């Protein structure tokens, strides 16, 4: 698929491509930065931990039969009644914080990623449609996009929560609505560039279907910026969910994401039980920072304009 | 850092009064909930009623234990079955210099139940009563049937001025124009979301207030409130979070005061539906509501470790409850003790009722209403799951919780099967919880309005209604105690604990803890002066 | 330009109208404010009386038409909880929020642009890398968490600054501001810093990117060749060019500052309109929620318009025109 797209590239763009395959070049450039490499490893580790959480933690923090209030507010390293050691301490309800953080991570990540993927797909379809349809449709869509982008995502999400109420499904919806326009704008501007290239016009003349042109030819060329925007937006979504939950308008306390855990721990801050809020905070920080660092590097590597700058720099 | 505040305070005041001692006479208090208005009749809500105590007196005041004591009325007594006579204090002046007379009382009781846009009116305490002026310093309150709680009801109504208050709109009180009372402090400024300031009423009829200036600030978040106290931004805070009490009590620069409140935390159980929405058979199928069975209700009560709730969830800052009001209140039963924790006995009772394998049930709770409410619900969930009931816990903000708990189910009935709630007896005696929580739901008579489990027992109803017609205190006490005992024996509700409220002040001052949870400036005293009071 | 402004304002009116429908019907679906408002002592008749007093017994469309009729005359309804006009309450809380947002914006410019300039001019220095790493951190740190840490450090442990609230205010041209008193400034410092962290990072990154791009441009090379001092090249030529995108973005971000102040205001008990909104959402004070959202929509439309106009002044190549025409 990538080859097909490449063959269709005009000469001017081809010059940018070295003899390596694009992926090899991308990989070696990405790994050039030690910070980004470390961030990537951290990010992958966090995702894996979140996925395998149920099999590695000592306690299911949502199963009431496994949680005992007599274990509440234990300092890190204390032993629980049922025998295991609570390395990160326990919270006010007696949940082992290590278990709760990993489970919270699952929720935070799945909310962030689910909303990110839905927003990406939605934004992609709308952006492509706008770029491809042109004319009035495009104008209308882009005006809506502009309008939405003129409001900060946090405010859009807050408004929606005010209207919709709380809940996992609602916060995902709010995050999707808050984010789709970023994707739509990104896709549309890249697609617009492609659309007016000769190969697309040639393909259209050959009678290739619209769908095929869009998905086989235009879309692959929009993927790079989409990936960059996608990483940054996912980090943003995770952080936004935590913020909303902290304000008490996000996820319900029965499905404690990292934001909810931090909010719960917030009340213990002054009493010296720092761990209830600090550890989930660090987990959130680590997650968001690593995703952002990866996104930052992706932007440097995938952006052709900066890319040449980077090459010039390394040539020096 | 402790001196910063004093230093700034001194600089500000030294400009006007050249006396450094004046700096100590201003007090700044951090509140957890902000009053919503300066109009004392606009919103019948704890924080509002507390703040209005600075400016406005009542005919009868409630002391820190909610015992009635003379306020603007010197005496009150029934002169026949249907009439109470109030003798008013003479020589009292409003802040604007006008005299306080019976006209002010009459117009107050006319305005209080009927303020435009009021979200919660004082009508509850005034309906069924007619106020008649006899002379300038005597009024009669008439009712259509004998009414013993006249004093308690009247003590809730702030008295405003006929000349500037009664015709005024809520905005006029907020701007200060109509905020003219007879109370210990005068209105200075009201900045919503920021602060409320008062200055001393030097002509106050009662004990002269100690503080020349009082400022209340709303700091909703618990840790921020504690931080403000530690940083010296405020001199005292109300509603110290239970989590911080341990650390603060070790702090030598601070002085804590604690007192049990009139608020009981209890569980309502669905006792009116064969098919209860949040109770299921194991596996999720239908089941005849087990909560209808007294043995099951008893088992649930026995399975709850009140010690664990008090020690672990409340960090020791609560008192185990065996009835609806703590010791010292009128109308409680001397015979009731908190139910003992007995998981084995609870299991046996469940088995006897035919639920040896338990069933599935959800406990619902607000998460922003009572002290540690969601955590208590979770702990109860844990405890019941240990006797074989498969529990889930659902907590939600009160904005959603209370409407669902009251009328969220089919046909506008209460939605939840098993729910955590709290009740503060505003009147300071036990008819308040009995008539609202225990009495059969009866819309026409206005009973059982908060009876969300719909427990219904004609015998208890009769006792409550009889008590509410009995003016003789001793007889009424017996009736109320008996009604309470029957309600507890039938497990109409399951009381778990009484809230204890904590105030923290910087060294040298102390707050006299109140059962009604109010924070009022006259209750704050420098320690060397407060020796004579509790 | 007049036509442009008028058209934009008309579009804004349509947006506001559509928003009013969505918001009004939206907030009326969740929860029931009555049970939040009434005193627990209230019996069934009292509850019914409250429902009627607040007009909640009417059908929803009727409530909406009454709202519209009122809105036409500038009355966005009375707050359930405060009993005062929602508009008045919001306007009363607005200066505090604007003051906070302006201070944060000021901090972002004062701290962010020089740091970004440095990082852009000397990208390979360790200090620059530290600045850039810091900016990533600034992007990622959750505002609410940082706020708490700031209180802990500066108010509780060090005792340098007050922890919460707004300080003494003075009245300037009809607005209460705390920026002109020492007490007020000491109060605004922490929340403004908390709010501006994100924007400082943004300013750093924007400036750095702008500088890096500008330094490679022909006009800089030409100026160098001509022997103009580096100081002058950067101070006059480069700065002039990078200021345009930086100003635009920061201007747009001013709106986001106002929006994000919700978080900061909640933590620092700052009496702004963000805190008013959160409290209103939590207490189902619908008139305030509706009025706030209406005002904020208008507010953003105006900000965007102003940014567009400033942009056209800064960069004469940009002409104000509507994309739809």
Q: Could you give the topology of this structure?
A:
The complex is a heterotrimer of chains A (316), B (534) and C (325).
Chain A lengths: L1 H6 L3 H4 L7 H11 L1 H23 L21 E2 L5 E2 L10 H37 L1 H15 L3 H12 L3 H28 L2 H8 L4 H37 L11 H9 L8 H28 L1 H12 L1
Antiparallel strand pairs in A: 1-2
Chain B lengths: L1 H13 L11 E6 L14 H10 L4 E3 L5 E3 L2 E8 L2 E6 L13 H10 L11 H4 L3 E6 L2 E5 L7 H5 L15 H6 L9 E7 L3 E6 L12 E6 L3 H9 L5 E2 L4 H8 L4 E16 L9 E2 L13 H10 L2 H8 L4 E3 L22 H10 L7 E7 L6 H13 L4 E7 L1 H10 L10 E7 L6 H8 L19 H10 L5 H17 L3 E14 L2 E3 L12 E3 L8
Parallel strand pairs in B: 1-10, 1-11, 15-16, 15-17
Antiparallel strand pairs in B: 2-3, 4-5, 5-7, 6-7, 8-9, 9-10, 11-18, 12-17, 12-18, 13-15, 14-18, 19-20
Helix pairs in contact in B: 9-11, 14-15, 15-16
Chain C lengths: L1 H26 L6 H4 L6 H10 L6 H13 L13 H36 L4 H15 L2 H15 L12 E3 L2 E3 L4 H34 L2 H9 L3 H39 L4 H10 L3 H29 L11
Helix pairs in contact in C: 1-12, 5-6, 5-8, 5-10, 5-12, 6-8, 7-8, 7-10, 8-10, 10-11, 10-12, 11-12
Strand order of the largest sheet of chain A: 1-2
> How much of the sequence of chain C is in beta strands?
under 5%
Average the pLDDT over all residues of chain C and give the rounded result: 82
Number of DSSP E strands of chain C: 2
> What is the helix tally of chain A?
13
Short description:
Chain A has 316 residues and is mainly α. In chain A, 73% of the residues lie in helices and 1% in strands. Chain A is elongated.
